[in-house]
Automatic annotation (TrEMBL), chain A:
SUPFAM superfamilies: NagB/RpiA/CoA transferase-like
Organism whose genome encodes this protein: Devosia sediminis
Protein's UniProt name: CoA transferase subunit B
Family: Belongs to the 3-oxoacid CoA-transferase subunit B family.
Keyword Transferase belongs to the record: yes
NCBIfam families: pcaJ_scoB_fam
UniProtKB/TrEMBL annotation, chain B:
GO terms for MF: CoA-transferase activity
This protein's name: 3-oxoacid CoA-transferase subunit A
Family that this chain belongs to: Belongs to the 3-oxoacid CoA-transferase subunit A family.
Keyword Transferase assigned: yes
Keywords, ordered alphabetically: Transferase
Stored PROSITE patterns: COA_TRANSF_1
Pfam families cross-referenced by the UniProt entry: CoA_trans
Annotated organism of origin: Devosia sediminis
Length: 223, 240
């Protein structure tokens, strides 16, 4: 096993925790990958903000119907039992607590569950999309991310420095090195790469982790 | 009663300078391209309408639709959640030059503000954006131990909507995910203008299937073969 999980492996690990029949929203970009790794026998129902429940894989090239897209504006297909609805109903599903899981990407996540994933600062054109709604309402709000930034700085921090998407909203973090729950305003380490020591993991984590007696091995198949 | 109008030019007549204009669609899905282009034609011929405030989830893509309106200089301000796209040049250039305004609204809040506008609800509370820069200056209240941000309704002078079927009374159906914001906008605008792929006789749409009841619709024009923004983008079309 390499020194860290690939994005596909992080997505695979997050997918293992999605229950059969769960209603799930996947953020645009990297989180969309989670859909590919549903375990056999567990069929999630995917929600997209623009008004579709129970969509399936992308169509073959040339088969796209551009009235049938996901929130990332990518062409999708429907599974049997799909439904269309307007945007207010769609976000009613979100804020109303009807989704079981939302899985999002992030720039930073703080130990109190604060999430910063929409803006890297005042430069350029700001765009928020549905992120600020999605972090409220889903029973579990999980984040999938590399453990550190491209320059090696911690993405799991004591306090976010970038503009917030939501306050105290994240419940679980899947990273390239570990799985952590956010409980009582702290990162609780649940799994880590078996090849990595707790001390080395702590060194690249920007807040002190809580270490329970049982810490599992984070192991994903080659993908 | 028959709400059909003879052509696109008649459909978009009466949209004036400075109006708030809602435009249905999410990206290219549900974008009423032909109505938007008819409005651009009107602007080119008469210099009006301009200084529009446009409400849409996005802020245009490429050189067609809302992006072409921005390029033409018709838009003073966008109210949207995500002013990015595959080719956001039209909005980005004007925004960075300070030539166009932006009110950035979280997507669910945008939808609910429009819904509230159509439903006569002046304000509501949402958890979205609490504690973020987007909530700055907005009233906050606590309900059952959780914090919420007050948001106000959003109404429009006119809305441009793309439907699949319309009967002459204005009852509408939509095609697949092209529905998105359109039923909300149809209700929130004083003048709701619809392009439908097919106009049928009252009774030809099963009442069980009606998504937007005709009470929300003022004008209907048939566009039998509507173009799709994504397809036009791939063909490299520019509406200039």
């Amino acid at each position: 096993m390499s020194a860290k999980l690939s994005n596909a492996q992080i997505a695979w690990r997050a997918a293992q925790d999605i229950e059969d029949g769960a209603y799930v929203n996947l953020g645009i970009g990297f989180p969309e990958m989670v859909a590919k790794f549903q375990p056999p026998g567990k069929q999630a129902i995917f929600h997209t903000e623009n008004g579709v429940l129970n969509f399936g894989e992308a169509p073959a090239e040339g088969e796209e119907d551009w009235d049938l897209i996901n929130a990332g504006k990518k062409a999708i297909t429907l599974r049997p039992g799909a439904a269309f609805f307007h945007h207010a109903d769609s976000f009613g599903m979100v804020r109303g607590g009807h989704l079981d899981v939302a899985i999002l990407g992030t720039y930073e996540v703080a130990e109190n569950g604060d999430l910063a994933n929409w803006s890297t600062g005042p430069k350029g054109v700001p765009a928020v999309g549905g992120a600020m709604d999605l972090v409220h309402g889903a029973k579990r709000v999980a984040v999938i991310t590399d453990h550190v930034t491209k320059d090696g700085k911690p993405k799991l921090v004591k306090k976010c420095t970038l503009p917030l998407t939501g306050v105290g909203c994240v419940t679980r973090v899947y990273t390239s090195l570990a799985v952590l729950d956010i409980e009582g305003g702290r990162f609780v380490l649940r799994e880590k790469l078996p090849t990595m020591s707790v001390a080395d993991l702590q060194a690249v984590t920007g807040a002190e982790m809580v270490l329970p007696d049982q810490i599992g091995d984070l192991v994903a198949p080659e993908l | 009663m028959d709400k059909t109008v003879p052509d696109l030019a008649a459909a978009v007549s009466g949209i004036e300078d400075g109006m708030v204009l809602m435009v249905g669609g999410f990206g290219g899905s549900g974008a009423p391209i032909e109505l938007i282009h008819a409005l651009i034609d009107c602007f080119k011929a008469t210099g009006s309408p301009k200084n529009l405030t446009v409400v849409n989830n996005n802020a245009g893509n490429g050189r067609i639709g809302i992006a072409a309106m921005i390029d033409a200089g018709m838009v003073a301000k966008m109210i949207c959640s995500f002013p990015r796209s595959a080719d956001p040049r039209a909005f980005t250039e004007k925004y960075l030059a300070g030539d166009i305004g932006l009110e950035l609204v979280p997507q669910g809040t945008l939808a609910e503000r429009i819904r509230a506008g159509g439903a006569g609800i002046p304000a509501f509370y949402t958890p979205a954006s609490y504690g973020t820069d987007v909530a700055k200056g907005k009233p906050v209240a606590e309900f059952d131990g959780k914090h919420y941000v007050q948001e106000r309704w959003l109404k429009a002078d006119a809305a441009l909507i793309k439907a699949e079927l319309a009967d002459t009374l204005g009852n509408l159906t939509y095609r697949k995910a092209a529905r998105n914001f359109s039923p909300l906008m149809a209700a929130a605008a004083k003048l709701t203008i619809v392009q439908a792929t097919r106009i049928v006789t009252p009774g030809d749409i099963d009442p069980e299937q009606v998504v937007t009841p005709g009470i929300f619709v003022n004008r209907i024009v048939e566009v039998a073969e509507p173009r799709q923004e994504e397809a036009l983008m791939r063909e490299g079309v520019a509406y200039v």
